[in-house]
């Protein structure tokens, strides 16, 4: 079992406050020990990033691209070493870890290796300008140029620690920023392992730093530090609001990817193909990382003519899934991240039952021990105003709600504080396209839960602010500077 230090300025630093244990959610055994941060150690990381950022920005973009590409290559080479640690600290199934977590992390670094070579200059047509008190008349040329923000504080989520880190760090580095990463407390070890890997790839010392902590103190110190120019955060809306309040005191830029309560709307014209897609998409709430994903379609809104058919199919789907040890290849549903989170998910299900809802599948803790397991749960008889239908649960729980017409479906779908990812299933894609325009959601999938990697990703309402993904990620980690000259 390894006791890690903070990764600051290209080397390990022994934590002044010692360590805390990182626990495997499936076995309840300690995987390793992560460092506790003090505000002084966070400040050291910020200082290192400030000192390194200017030189990194002045590095030829081709070299920045080469470094990011080498990071991707090393991640691929070391997947055999990293996968068991990543699986153990997250509790994800080995299939998900090997097929999605590590490959997507590497691909994000490759994508932004290409991104480092994208133009950062937006030419503007010359404009004739009349004489004024400041300057004579003339033909004035101009360009808008993207410049790095500076030092970016990246606070990441526990569900996909490396994927989420790469989605922030890779575009930030491609634009010439330096970063200080504060991973989620539950599973920071692979994020720490990325430090020496980045150094081996040729990233200058201080451009990438990692500090950790078991509580909110490290993140709060990072957000409040005057040397941090931007905060990129993925996590709950409640924490995001606190970060926004703190960041606003110094007018820091923020990128917030917050909670979701996705609606999968199954229209009455859905044919067999659309229904199959809908069942698979909604079933992913159970089968994909135990529902610990903000884009999950955790509400299925079904036209009354198809409601019983869809609910029956979903009940069969949920009951067919194997819950158990995530390193067993037959397992589909692994644990949630902690005992505290398991208890929180179970409390939502119990609350729905007490309010008159019907638990059609799950609702009883699986007979799997040790570990923090929640059975795939399907709830019917749910009213839209119930907490289970309005609040993010972040677990393997789906609520089914019938509707009569599109207007009612839109009201229910838009009737939560969130607006991250919704879905429409219909035999008529033109109709689904028109309905998407009525949804207050940053993303809409039509007959699919698949993602497009180049789309802008982010949410409406309390699901966040800003967009990343593809070239939009480069925009997110840059400031626009206007440069003007006489032609």
TrEMBL record:
Aldehyde dehydrogenase domain boundaries: 12-483
Gene3D superfamilies: Aldehyde Dehydrogenase, Chain A, domain 1, Aldehyde Dehydrogenase, Chain A, domain 2
Swiss-Prot/TrEMBL keywords: Oxidoreductase
Pfam families: Aldedh (PF00171)
Molecular-function annotations in GO: oxidoreductase activity, acting on the aldehyde or oxo group of donors, NAD or NADP as acceptor
Family label: Belongs to the aldehyde dehydrogenase family.
Protein name in the entry: Aldehyde dehydrogenase
């Amino acid at each position: 079992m390894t006791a890690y230090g903070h990764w600051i300025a290209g080397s390990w630093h022994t934590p002044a406050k010692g360590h805390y244990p990182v626990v495997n959610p499936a076995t309840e055994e300690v995987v390793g020990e992560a460092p506790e941060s003090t505000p002084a150690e966070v400040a050291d990381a910020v200082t290192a990033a400030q000192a390194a950022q200017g030189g990194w920005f002045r590095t030829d973009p081709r070299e920045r691209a080469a470094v990011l590409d080498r990071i991707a290559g090393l991640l691929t080479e070391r997947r055999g070493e990293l996968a068991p640690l990543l699986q153990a600290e997250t509790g994800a199934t080995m299939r998900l870890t090997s097929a999605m977590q590590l490959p997507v992390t590497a691909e994000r670094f490759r994508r932004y290796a290409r991104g480092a070579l994208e133009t950062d200059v937006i030419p503007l047509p010359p404009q004739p300008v009349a004489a004024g008190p400041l300057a004579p008349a003339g033909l004035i040329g101009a360009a808008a140029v993207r410049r790095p923000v500076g030092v970016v504080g990246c606070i990441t989520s526990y569900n996909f620690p490396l994927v989420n880190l790469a989605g922030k760090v890779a575009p930030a580095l491609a634009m010439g920023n330096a970063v200080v990463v504060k991973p989620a407390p539950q599973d920071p070890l692979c994020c720490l392992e990325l430090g020496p890997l980045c150094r081996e790839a040729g990233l200058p010392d201080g451009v990438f730093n990692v500090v950790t902590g078991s509580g909110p103190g490290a993140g709060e110190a990072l957000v409040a530090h005057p040397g941090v120019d931007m905060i990129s955060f993925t996590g709950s809306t409640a924490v995001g609001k606190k970060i926004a309040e703190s960041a606003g005191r110094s007018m820091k830029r923020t990128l917030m990817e917050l909670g979701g309560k996705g609606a999968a709307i199954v229209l009455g014209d859905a044919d067999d193909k659309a229904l199959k897609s809908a069942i698979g998409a909604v079933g992913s709430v159970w089968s994909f990382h135990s529902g610990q994903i903000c884009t999950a379609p955790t509400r299925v809104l079904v036209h009354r003519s198809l409601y019983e058919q869809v609910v029956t199919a979903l009940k069969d789907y949920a009951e067919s899934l194997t819950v158990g040890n995530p390193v067993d290849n037959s397992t589909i549903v692994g644990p949630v991240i902690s005992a505290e989170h398991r208890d929180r998910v179970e409390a939502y299900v119990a609350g729905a039952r007490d309010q008159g809802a019907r638990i059609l599948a799950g609702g009883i803790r699986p007979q799997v021990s040790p570990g923090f397991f929640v059975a795939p749960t399907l709830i019917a008889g749910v009213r839209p105003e119930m907490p289970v239908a309005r609040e993010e649960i972040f677990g393997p729980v789906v609520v089914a709600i019938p509707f009569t017409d599109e207007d009612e479906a839109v009201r229910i779908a838009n009737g939560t504080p969130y607006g991250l990812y919704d879905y429409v299933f219909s035999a008529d894609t033109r109709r689904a396209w028109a309905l998407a325009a009525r949804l207050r959601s940053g993303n809409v999938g039509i007959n699919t839960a698949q993602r497009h990697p180049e789309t802008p990703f982010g949410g409406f309402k309390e699901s966040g602010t800003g967009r990343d993904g593809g070239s939009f990620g480069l925009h997110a980690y840059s400031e626009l500077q206007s440069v003007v000259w006489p032609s």
